[in-house]
Write a structure and sequence with these properties.
Layout: H1 2-22, E1 25-27, H2 30-37, E2 42-47, H3 56-65, E3 71-74, E4 89-94, E5 99-104, H4 113-123, E6 128-130, H5 133-141, E7 146-152, H6 157-169, E8 178-183, H7 190-195, E9 205-210, E10 215-218, H8 226-238
Parallel strand pairs: 1-3, 2-3, 6-8, 7-8
Antiparallel strand pairs: 2-4, 4-5, 7-9, 9-10
Helix pairs in contact: 3-4
Length: 255
Amino acid sequence: MLTAVILLAFLLSAAAATEKDSAPLRLNDTKAAEAFIDSAEVVVVGFLEGEDSRGYKELVEASKRVESVPFAICTVKEAWPEYKIPSDTIALFRKADNHQENLVIAEAKKLEADGIINFVNVNEVRYVTEYNQMTAVGLFNSEVKAHLLLFANRGTKEFTELKKNLRALAPDFTGKFLFVLINGAVRGNSRSLGYFGLKTNDLPRVGIYDGDSDMKWLLPEGEITNERVREFCQSFLRGDLKEVKQAGAEPKTEL
């Protein structure tokens, strides 16, 4: 009997520990907030007055269901001005373009955990972001309009290695390019490939799309090395690509 009681107590303790570990981190000062925001490519911070605040329970619930993004809560209002937070707000911070996206609680007509998760998924732009209908919103709403595009077929030997290499290169172009991965094996991405004059069996290839000028170019065929991709990006930034023939022949459609 005693053994059963001890076992039950252990199980309850383990469950409590798991629940505690899944709760958002509490940020108690500005330095803690700075360290947390710098700790990952994408993070979410709930700037809320307290546990009774609207959105608090929903944020905690959302944090348990989103594994790819760390969550925290900051109730210390002295830290809020650093991030231009005037009132209760759920803020998403991303390093890829040094962007802060705010979900202001007072402006949200309906606030549920599912809505917060959607807010995160839509704005979760990373150093290398895989293109889909959800991430397209964050990509095209970014102030960074130049996209370095890797067209590759998931499941091929090149896919993982190229993604890894571009992930290492992307931080060097923070605020200048968003690095986007387009999986050519997805039928819905055929329009994106066609816009660059590509077909699935042409991949992998690398391209640049400039949203400001609506122009596009392909890195010439050959081995895709970080050195070649870096120079490709630099040639765009120098303005050299304006004299180079654009990729594809199809009229513009949404990527």
